[in-house]
Amino acid sequence: MSKACPETITGHILIVDDVLENVQLLSSTLSEQGHKVRGVLSGEMALRASESLPDLILLDIMMPGMNGYEVCRKLKESPSTCNIPVIFLSALDAAADKVKAFDLGGVDYITKPFQLQEVHARISHQLKLQRLQRQLLAQTEVLNQKNAHLQQEIHDRKQIEAALRASEIKEQEKNYQLSQALEQLQKAQAQLIQQEKMSALGQLMAGVAHEINNPVTFIYGNLEYAETYTQDLLKALQIYQQAAPQLPTDVQTKLKSLDLAFIQKDLPELLRSMSVGSERIREIVQSLHIFSRHREAESKAVNIHEGLDSTLMILQSRLRAQSHHAAVAVVKDYGDLPKVECYPGQLNQVFMNVLTNSIDALEALRLPEETPYSHREPTIHIQTKVLSGDRIGIYISDNGPGISKEVQPRLFDPFFTTKDIGKGTGLGLAISYKIIVDRHGGDLRCLSMPDRGAMFTIEIPVVQTQPPS
């Protein structure tokens, strides 16, 4: 089976060489290959002949007058001839000459004396590249036409999309309703997470109180005996000193170094201080127990004042004076309340949230620098009393800057806060409102006038009548 002959590509070739024999040789062999050939003997003639736009130029470098490098430079500067491929012809085989030829825009380089097969191969290669370039240009034109058609289709689609927007508006309204429902669900989820955190905090506080209680009870119970034994030892020491006034010199020196007189005076005071400290720890532990009430998930009758006092005890570190903050005075005006049926752990969370809010509101009164409120002593007033209709009222007020009328309607909205970023989540009062209104069937409000402070009013029934929510 015979092999297929490769396709012969012919073209219009311009030969530029000042040696006539070279022009004749190349013209003869290229014409036999089917190429249309024209030969010239100088650079000036080459520039004029190039106006016919040949497919390829074979350009000699070493020519009198205008050399090949200069001819190539001028060809590349002209918009009409800049794309004609140039193959340099030269007897120079140095790398620098070839580099210069390529820098000026040459596409190939043939050294003399000519190897005709090499000449044919390089010319054929360049003509093939030209054909490919023309094909590429044609394909590009086709693509441009397709692109124009595509742009028209896009325009048509935009018109269709514009017609669909009217129906999309209705869908957006439905989506808005769904987003509102999702937002409510997220708020409920956030409140549930916050409640779980408070429940976990209550369990932690109860656990800490339990762990502290046993060793503190042990210490507190033995301090009384320690004080009695100490007094007995001191009396025995006095009796011994009276019975043996003249002790050996070395014993007297040792006793003098011990400073027994100071020990006899300071030791009872030391024991009394330890007793006061252990009593204080017992009070704190008791407050932690009352505040946490983590096991009391059901409604039960409790002393409301115990819950308020335990919350205040836990907040003592924020109420007392600090290096750059004045102390907050707490005025209690407790009424004669009956035991109130409620969910004590949750109610204590409300007291914590409201009191913390009041302490934050008094920040401007506690700063050492001068403010419009510096003349006021930061004070929180807590009042409780029995109301008509078997209800009780708890009123927690402060003498801070107050709350603006614009903010008051949003105080109990989830995630709403006037505090700086990182200092509040906006959930404390929202959860408090849910606990008082939904859980206890009560009422939680805030009454405030700008620059006159604020009062949170909590009213709940003495006996729970509504099912737990």
Description:
There is one protein chain. By secondary structure, the chain is α/β, with parallel strands linked by helices. Among the domains are: 12-114, Rossmann fold, CATH 3.40.50.2300; 299-469, 2-Layer Sandwich (Heat Shock Protein 90), CATH 3.30.565.10. The protein is 55% helix and 14% strand. The chain has 12 helices and 12 strands. It has helices spanning 20-32, 43-49, 68-77, 95-103, 116-243, 249-258, 260-292, 304-314, 316-319, 344-361, 363-366, 428-439; strands at 12-16, 36-40, 56-60, 86-90, 108-111, 300-302, 329-333, 340-342, 379-387, 391-398, 443-448, 454-461. The strands form 3 sheets. Strands 2-1-3-4-5 form a 5-stranded parallel beta sheet, sandwiched between helices. A 5-stranded mixed beta sheet has the order 7-9-10-12-11. Strands 6-8 form a two-stranded antiparallel sheet. Strand 4 (86-90), helix 4 and strand 5 (108-111) form a beta-alpha-beta unit. Helix 2 (43-49) packs parallel to helix 3, helix 8 (304-314) packs across helix 10 (344-361) and helix 10 (344-361) packs antiparallel against helix 12 (428-439). The longest helix is centred in the middle third of the chain and has 128 residues, at 116-243.
